[in-house]
């Protein structure tokens, strides 16, 4: 009765453990960022799971073995008692003791004579023990391991060597960085866009301009169907924010289409930045730009604030203040 109670308790505990483990799997999976790392965490979770199950099975197996031994012993005892003799349980070494004996191959003190060498150093004797088998086993394992390692890494190239591993990690980081940059690029809108004259921005801006905008705004921004970009006059404002907004939403009723479905936000920033560099240039071919349209745009200097400049105290003014 007691026995079955204990068993039921353990089964319950094991079940709860199993359940909580299974429930944590999705949490594991969600913490991963990309699909590949998701897959990796899932794989690790499954491996850990398999390991735990294997250990559980081993424990249960050992438990069963001990129960069978107990039953056999009880059986023997009943038989001996039935014959009217006294039951003396023979002390069979346990499995652990047997294993220890095998692993150490130690000679008991009583049998030391058998391995004693005939050296005698002032009463100190030397025993000719074998190398401990556990130590030799480890050595064999390293040989096998070395062989497997050689095959896997150098013959079949199944796994990357350290240098390759490093390169892979660096490549992953590069891709991740690019993804992040692209994501940041896609966060650009007319409120947070900033003018940039970085070389890659200009190059990309020019490429887009030559491909998409030239037909209406002319190769050097002289203007054709659309207004020119070379003077200070803008119909919709000349800040990068105004320009970005016009490129993004267009002025469809006037013939300027909306580009947000064809260009990414960072592309629109690039081409917007690029056309701003036309301001103040003198186109050569055709020389006469389209006449000014809209209002003159005077850029606001970011550094200049509306506040009055604060007068720095000089040593003289400080002296005056102290004398007061
Ligand atoms: C089909 C012809 C056409 C194409 C192609 C075109 N535009 Fe325009 N664009 C126009 C017209 C027409 C206007 C004037 C809209 C108005 O009057 O409000 C304009 C106006 C603009 C303005 C506002 C100018 C101002 O003075 O405020 C900007 C900026 C602009 N375009 C940029 C671009 C860019 C960048 C491209 C290429 C991605 C492009 N446009 C392609 C026809 C075009």
**What is the correct CATH architecture of the domain at 199-296?**
Orthogonal Bundle
Runs in which pLDDT lies below 50 for 5 or more consecutive residues are 302-310
Rg: 42 Å
Number of helices: 9
Number of strands: 4
CATH class of the domain at 199-296: Mainly Alpha
Brief descriptors of the model:
binds heme C; two-stranded antiparallel ribbon; 57% helix; 4 strands; Cytochrome Bc1 Complex, Chain D, domain 2; mainly alpha; 324 residues
Can you offer a commentary on this structure?
The protein has 324 residues and is mostly helical. Among the domains are: 2-82, no CATH class; 199-296, Cytochrome c-like domain (Cytochrome Bc1 Complex, Chain D, domain 2). Helices cover 57% and strands 4% of the residues. The chain has 9 helices and 4 strands, in the order αααββαααβααβα. The chain has helices at residues 2-31, 35-82, 95-104, 133-155, 162-186, 199-217, 240-249, 265-276, 315-323; strands spanning 116-121, 124-127, 233-234, 295-296. The strands form 2 sheets. It has a two-stranded antiparallel ribbon with strand order 1-2. The protein has a two-stranded antiparallel ribbon with strand order 3-4. The longest helix is centred in the N-terminal third of the chain and has 48 residues, at 35-82. It is elongated. The N and C termini lie far apart (100 Å). The structure holds heme C (HEC). Heme C (HEC) is lined by residues 208, 212-213, 215-217, 225-227, 234-236, 243, 246-247, 251, 254-256, 259, 271, 275, 293-294.
